[in-house]
Amino acid sequence: MPKEYKLKICLVGEPAVGKTSLIRRFVTDKFDDKYLTTIGTKVSKKEVVLDDGTKVILMVWDIMGQPSFRQMLKESYFYGANGVLAVTDITRKETLDAMPDWIGTIRSVVEKDIPATFLGNKADLKDSAQFELEDIRKMAGMYNGKAFLTSAKTGVNVNEAFVSLAEEILKKMK
Length: 174
Ligand code: G3D
Ligand code: MG
Known about the structure:
By secondary structure, the chain is of the alpha/beta class. It has helices at residues 19-28, 67-78, 94-97, 99-109, 133-142, 158-173; strands spanning 4-12, 42-49, 55-62, 83-89, 116-121, 147-149.
């Protein structure tokens, strides 16, 4: 009998990197170009079945990206998190540079080696890219995480990234 798991996943990253859009794409498989900036927190739920038949219910937490909120909100948002999706925007290098601060914050609340998967989002805007997959891989490597180029707009790699994180979390639990 395959086991069933329920996991809490938090998205972190600077404002406008595409956190809310990625969740909307993953949960509803649709992209809305007119989606407004998030106000407050939102939890979405999606069930995935892994290759080995394991059923995983993902509770996906969307957080406000304003760095000033990082300290204020960290306890309630990150409490009980099983994994992190660290989202950057490939058209803005500063969103990659800001990531260690985000990871530091989450690691101050939850266990130090919480699985983290690193995304370079807006892969559809490749022509205005300021960094590439290799740079994300380097950062991910510092935290033993995987790296993906994603696009909430086209949907490329969005499912793959969420599922990969779920697999990393379960690998660690077993
Ligand atoms: P956030 O939740 O991290 O703050 P949002 O980011 O999901 O609100 O997205 C911020 C802006 O980036 C939005 O544009 C959204 O449409 C756009 N966006 C998100 N993901 C992608 C992507 O993969 N490709 C492209 N081209 N745009 C993306 P607006 O104009 O609505 O502010
Ligand atoms: Mg948002």
